[in-house]
Amino acid sequence: MFRYLMLAGLALFLPGLFALGYAVLEGPSAWMTDSRTFWGTPIALFVFWIGLAHAGTLLSAIFLALGIKLDRRTALIAELSTLVSLVFAGIFPLMHLGVVENFYMVAPFLDARGNFANVRSPLVWDFCCIVVYALLSLLFFTTHLKARVVPALDRYCKPMAWLLFPLVLWVHTVVSLDFATTFVPEWRGAFFPVYFIVGAILSGLALVNLLICAEGYRVRLMERLQLITSWILCAIWIWDLLFKGYFCTSAFIFAVLLPQFRMVAVIRESRAGRIFFSLSILLGLFLERFYLVSPLAGVPGEPGFGLVDLGLLAFSLGGFMMLFYAARSLLNESMEGAGTYFGEVDGSDMANVEESERSREKTHGLTLSYIQPWSSEEYKTLRLPLACGFSVALLFVLWVCAQLPFVGSPYENVEVILVNVLPLSYPVIAFVAALVLACKAVWVDKAVELGRNSYVALAVALVALAVLAGMFYAGGAASRPDAVIAEAPQYGSEIVDSAHVQFVWNARCAQCHGVDGRFNDKFIREYYPVPQKLDVARIDSLGLDSLVNVVLDGRVNMNPYRGRLTESEARALVVYMRSLAEAP
Amino acid sequence: MDCHRLPLTEKPGIETLDSVLTSAPDHPWSHKRFLPEHVVFHHGVHASAGVACSDCHGEGYMKNHYGGEKFDMQTCLKCHRGETFKEKGYKPAATYCAACHR
Amino acid sequence: MDRREFIKSCSLVAVMGLLFGCRKSELLGDIASQFSVPELKRFEDEVKLAMSRAKKSLDLVRVSAPGPLKIPGASPVNRFGMAIDLDLCDGCGKCILACNLENNVPLVPAEDATRGRFMHWVEMRGNAPLMCAHCGDAPCEKVCPTGAANHTPDGISAMMYKRCTGSRFCGANCPVHARKFNFNDAQSLGLARQFNKEVPLRDKGVMEKCSLCLHRLQNDRLAFKTRNPLSEWRGRGVKTACAEACPKNAIVFGNWLDPESPLARLAKTRILYAPREVAALDPSVVFVRGRR
C-alpha cells in the first residue's frame, strides 16, 4: 500500500520537477501571477503547505503539552507530515523570487555587507520564523522518535512541546501578517492571524486524518475536531463577507459544506467517506488560499491557471507523498506497535494500553495531573534554557534598536521601532532555548549517548554552517566581474547628436574649413592650394555618399579619416556641413 | 596634425612623425573604468572635499603604476561613515543608497 | 560505489545543474550580447498602444503642499517632487516616450502587451500621466525585505536594483500600482535598448519604477559639490525627462522646500490634488488644477 502511494507520488513528482525546473529557469512569467498583487501559485502553495506543516506539531506538541493523550503512532505521523510539508513550504517562497540567488539578502544577519535586511518587512520575520520552526520541528521529531529507544529522553519531549506550542501560533501569525500589513483590500484585517491559524489547523487535521486513514485506522477525536474547526472557519468567512463583501464560494462548499456530512452515520463509518471529507477540506482550503493570493484570478483578461501551475501543484503533492512514504517505510519499526489510544484498528486493547502506559509513567516519575506552572517538571527543565533564550533575544532586540537607524549606514533614514523587531523575538528565544536544552540533555544530563558518527555529523554540520555564515557575511558580487566593466564612451556610438557633430567639426575640420563652414582663408593660403567652395548646390550635386567617402578615404589634399571617425559620424558631419552652407 | 599634408618643417624627424600620426587611431590610449554601471563615482567631488589621491589609490600612481586597486562597498562606506582617516578630519559623507547607486 | 549509485548521483547532479546552473550560464550571456537592439519606432508604437489601453478613472482628492519629510535623517532643505498641471495637460503622452528613452525602459513581448503588462514608468490614467508619487510614508519601502526600496533624505523613493531579490511584495503593496516587475530578460530578448548611458539596464526579476530621474539629480549634485564644496545643494536647474518633454509645460519638477523653485511657487497659487489611494501617504508628486 505505502509503496504504491510512494510510486504514485513519484509519478506526480517527476513531471512536477520538470515544471519546477522550467519555472525557475523562466522566472515568474512562467506561472500565473496576479497583475495586481504580483503574486501567484507559488505563494498560494506556500501558504497551503505551511498550513499543513502546522498540523503535526500542533497535534503532537500541543496535545502533549496540554496532557491530551495521543498515541505515539499518530503523533509521529503528524510530526513527519510537518517535516515533509516544511520542505515544500520552504521551496515555494524561494522559487517565487525574481532573483533566486539573492535570497540570502532577506536574512537579518548582522550588518553584513554594510547592510541590514529591512526588519520592518513581514517577509524577514517570515524567513526567520520558518527557519527556526523547521529546525525545532526536526529536533522535536528526533527526540520523540529516539525516546522509544532511550526512555530517558521522554522527559525532554514535553518541555520541547511547550517551546513549540507558541512557535506554531507565532509562525502562522507572521505568515498572516505578510498579507494583513499590506494595502491590498482583500488582505486587510486584524483578524487575519486567527483566521490563518484556524485555516492551518483545519487543513492540518484533514491531512493527518487522511494519512491515518491510509494507515487503516481512525481517531474519532480528530474527526470531531476537524468538524468543529470547519465551523470556526465558516464563522470567520462570514465575518469577512460582512466586512469586505468578499466570499469564496468554492472554498466554502469544499471546506465547510461537504464535511458536514460527517453527521450522517453511514458516511462517517465508511473509510471512503472519511477520505472524502479530508480531501474535500484540503481542496477547499487550497482554493481559498489560491483566490486569496490572486484576487483577480478568473477575471477576464487575466492569466489563467496554466500547465506550469499544475506542474507546481503536482510537484508538491507528489513530492510530499514520495518523501512521506519513503520516510514512513524507513521508520516503520519505530511506528508500529506503539500504544494506540484513540486509534481503532481493532479497539479491543484500549484498557490494556492505558494500564501499561500508566504503569510506565509511574516508573519514570511523570504525573498526569493538571498543569502546575511553577512547580512542574517541564518548568524546571525549561528554566535555564528559557532564561538563556530571553537574554539572547533581549540582546538582539537591544542591538537592532541601537543600530537602527544605523547612524552612517545605507539605511540611516529607516525608522525602526520596537514593534518591528518584536516578531523576531520569540523565534530567537525558542531557538536558543531549544539549543541549550539539547546541549543540556546531551552533555549535562547525559540523557543520550552520542556515538562517534553523531560527533562527526555534528562537526560537519557546524563547519558547513560556519562556511554558509561566512558566505552570507561576505555576500556575492553584484554581477560577474567581466559583465560590469564599462568602457569609457568611445567615438562611434550609434546615435550621433548635433552637439557631438558640432564638437567634431570644430575639433577636426574647422582648421581648414572654418567654424562657420567658410574657409579659413589665411591658414589655407599659407600651405595649400585653395580648395573648391562647397556651397549647397555643389554639395547636393556631389551627393551625400560620395562626400562621406571623401571624408573617410580622403581626396587630393583632404586627409583620410577612416578609423578616426565612424561612418555615422562622417555622415552626420556632411549633413552638418550642408546646414552650415545653407546658413546665410 | 590632422590636417597638414605638407611637411611643416624641414627637420628629418617629421616624416616619421607624420607616418605614425596618419596610422594612429583617434584614441591611442584606452581608458577602462572598472566601475559597475549601477555605481556612481565622481573624482571631482572627492578631490574638492580634500581627499588626496593617495588616500584611495595608495602611492602606486606616483611610480606610474595605474589600476589594480580593488574597492568594495565596505571601503567606501567606512570612509563615508568617518571611520577611516580620522586623523585627517574628513567629515562623514552621505551614506544612503541612492547617493552612490542608481 | 556501484554503478547504479553512480548513475543515480550523476542524474541528481544533472537535475541540480538544470535547476540552478542555467540562470547564469556563460553560454546564455554570450548569445544575449549578440542580439540586436530594437528600433525607436517600436518604442513609439508601444507608447501608443499603452495609451489606447489606458484606464479611464483617476480619483483625485485635495492635499496640502508637501513639507519636510518625516523620516530620520531627512534633509531639511530638499524634498524633490513634481506637479502635473491638469489645466494644461492634454494627455498627449509625450512624457511617456521621453521617460522610456531617458530611463531605458524596455519593451514587453506581445503577450504581455495584450494583457496591458507594460514596463512604462509613466502611464496614462484618466487622460493624465500617473507615476510613482514618491510617498513620504511609502508603503512599498516598509515591506521590502532586503531594503532595496528605500528613501533618500531628499524625498526620492529610490530603488536599488542589485539589492532587489524580486519578492514583489512592494508591488503588491503599492496602492496605485506604480511599480513594474521585469518578468522578461529584456536584454536577451532584444527588447531593451540603452538610449541613455547614464541609466543602467535592469536585469530580469527585479522591480522598477519612476526614479524622478535620479541620475540627473545625482549628476547635478556631484557637479555642484565639486564646484562649491561648502554651499548647500538645492537641485536648482534640474528637470526630469518628462517635464522637459512636455510641450505644454504641464509637468513641473522642483524642490518643495526651496522657495525659489518653480514647484514651490506654483503651489502657492494653485490647488493641489493627489490620487485618493496615496493622498494620506504624504505624496511628493501631485496634481494641480484651478487657482485659489
Description:
The complex is a heterotrimer of chains A (584), B (102) and C (292). Chain A folds into 3 domains: 338 residues, Up-down Bundle (Formate dehydrogenase/DMSO reductase fold), CATH 1.20.1630; 106 residues, no CATH class; 85 residues, Cytochrome Bc1 Complex, Chain D, domain 2, CATH 1.10.760.10. Chain A is elongated. By secondary structure, chain A is mostly helical. Chain A contains 23 helices and 1 strand. About 5% of the residues of chain A have low confidence. Chain B has 2 domains: 28 residues, no CATH class; 69 residues, no CATH class. Chain B has 5 helices and 1 strand. Classes of the chains: A mainly alpha (584), B mainly alpha (102), C alpha+beta (292). Chains in contact: A-B, A-C, B-C. Strand 1 of chain A pairs antiparallel with strand 1 of chain B.
- Name the structural class of chain C: alpha+beta
Tell me the strand percentage band of chain B: under 5%
Structural class of chain B: mainly alpha
Integer-rounded radius of gyration of chain B: 21 Å
Please give the domain count of chain C.
1
Helix and strand pattern of chain B: HEHHHH
Helical fraction of chain B equals: 25-40%
Uncertain spans of chain C? 18-34
**What sequence of helices (H) and strands (E) makes up the elements of chain C?**
HHHEEHHEEHEEHEEHHEHEE
Strand proportion of chain C: 5-15%
| Average pLDDT number of chain C | 85
Count all strands of chain B and give the number. Answer: 1
Strand order of the largest sheet of chain C: 1-10-11-2-9
Number of strands of chain C: 11
> Given the C-alpha coordinates, what overall shape of chain C results?
globular
Average the pLDDT over all residues of chain B and give the rounded result. Answer: 76
